[in-house]
């Protein structure tokens, strides 16, 4: 009960009589009811009063918190003084405002950079599209390198023909693989019938041995054909494709170069005032930049075409010799020559079931 009275005294004003005696306190039941209502509703911070210490103090010691403005204060009840707390709030406000300004400046800088990039891209796209349309309708001029363009056209035609060779070689591999699998199944069937048919044991046995030999030679030939297909695929879809990607970059650079060249020529035919001269100088700089890019990519294309031709001759000479020797040895029934051909080209056959993962890898 004493604790309830002290809690009540801490949250309310205690009336003081003129003679210094305190007024009559309410009964204990009313104190408990007031405490319950306070606990349910909760204090209102805007209406809370700070009471100065001592029962002999005056009403001036009651300071409503809603009237306190400005910097944070600490109230010393013993000496009836307010001690301002400075530094923390102002520093936090200053640091938060400076960090927000820095983030805003960074965001603004990124937005400006993106805007400039989009602006340059849009201007470049417009010029190139205009140049492309002018060339297509025969109104604009284009830079032509007859010798280089002839080599590029030969390369594209060669790639189309080699792709056809690759397609046919893959078809041959699939058909021959099916034939080898059929021979393997037929040999197993003959061997089984040789065991179950005593009157035809020798005949079934001869055919079983023949099919097994053909199956073995067929697997050896399949190894040679697969190596041939793999080499042609690398030549067509990697080496030639890499050169064609460089050619595409060269053609784009040529289009940009002609677009900025045409723009410079149009500006040169116009007036020669200060504004026009500034635009001509800027166009001259852009023209020089794209000219250097065009010449650099042109040199790259010439070098790659030269190396590609040398590599193509070397690879195809080896692969065509392999294909011829393997096919000839197989259909001649020369097993020794067929195996020698694979050794000559360092081709190693995979054992049956090598493509399947082991039981440990499947776990």
Describe this structure in words.
Residues 143-343 form the AH domain. By secondary structure, the chain is mainly α. Helix content is 72%, strand content 3%. A two-stranded antiparallel sheet has the order 1-2. β3 (73-76) and β4 form a beta hairpin. α3 crosses α5 (201-268), α4 (146-196) runs antiparallel to α5 and α6 (274-331) packs antiparallel against α7 (335-344).
Short descriptors:
3% strand; 72% helix; disordered C terminus; 363 residues; disordered N terminus; two-stranded antiparallel sheet; mainly alpha; single chain
Globular, elongated, flat, extended or rod-shaped: what is the shape?
elongated
Q: Low-confidence spans: pLDDT under 50, at least 5 residues?
A: 1-28, 40-90, 355-363
Question: What is the average per-residue confidence, as pLDDT, rounded to a whole number?
Answer: 76
Radius of gyration (CA) equals 47 Å
Structural class: mainly alpha
The helix/strand series, from N terminus to C terminus, equals: HHEEEEHHHHHH
Distance between the termini: 74 Å
GO cellular component, one term: trans-Golgi network membrane
GO molecular function: phosphatidylinositol-4-phosphate binding; protein domain specific binding
InterPro entries: AH/BAR_dom_sf, AH_dom, Arfaptin_fam
Pfam families: Arfaptin
């Amino acid at each position: 009960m004493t604790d309830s009275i002290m809690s009540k005294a801490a949250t309310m004003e205690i009336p003081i009589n003129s003679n210094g005696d305190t007024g009559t306190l309410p009964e204990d039941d009313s104190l408990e009811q007031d405490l319950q209502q306070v606990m349910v509703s909760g204090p209102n911070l805007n209406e809370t009063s700070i009471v100065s210490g001592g029962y002999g103090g005056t009403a001036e010691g009651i300071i409503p918190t809603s009237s306190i403005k400005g910097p944070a204060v600490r109230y010393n009840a013993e000496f009836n003084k307010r001690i301002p707390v400075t530094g923390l709030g102002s520093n936090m406000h200053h640091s938060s405002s400076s960090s927000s300004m820095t983030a805003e400046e960074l965001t603004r800088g990124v937005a400006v950079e993106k805007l400039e990039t989009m602006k340059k891209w849009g201007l470049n796209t417009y010029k190139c599209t205009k140049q492309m349309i002018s060339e297509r309708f025969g109104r604009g001029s284009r830079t032509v390198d007859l010798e280089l363009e002839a080599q590029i056209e030969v390369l594209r035609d060669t790639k189309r023909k080699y792709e056809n060779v690759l397609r046919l070689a893959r078809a041959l591999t699939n058909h021959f693989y099916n034939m080898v699998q059929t021979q393997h199944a037929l040999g197993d069937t003959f061997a089984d019938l040789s065991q179950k048919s005593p009157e035809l044991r020798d005949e079934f046995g001869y055919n079983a041995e023949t099919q097994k030999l053909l199956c073995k030679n067929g697997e050896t030939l399949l190894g040679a054909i697969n190596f041939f297909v793999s080499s042609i695929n690398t030549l067509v879809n990697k080496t030639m494709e890499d050169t064609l990607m460089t050619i595409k970059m060269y053609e784009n650079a040529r289009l940009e170069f002609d677009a900025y060249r045409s723009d410079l020529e149009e500006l040169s035919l116009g007036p020669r005032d200060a504004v026009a001269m500034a635009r001509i100088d800027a166009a001259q700089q852009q023209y020089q930049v794209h000219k250097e890019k065009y010449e650099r990519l042109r040199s790259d294309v010439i070098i790659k075409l030269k190396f590609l031709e040398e590599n193509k001759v070397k690879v195809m000479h080896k692969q065509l010799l392999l294909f011829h020797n393997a096919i000839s040895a197989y259909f001649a029934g020369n097993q020794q020559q067929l195996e020698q051909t694979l050794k000559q080209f360092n081709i190693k056959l995979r054992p049956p079931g090598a493509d399947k993962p082991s039981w440990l890898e499947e776990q």
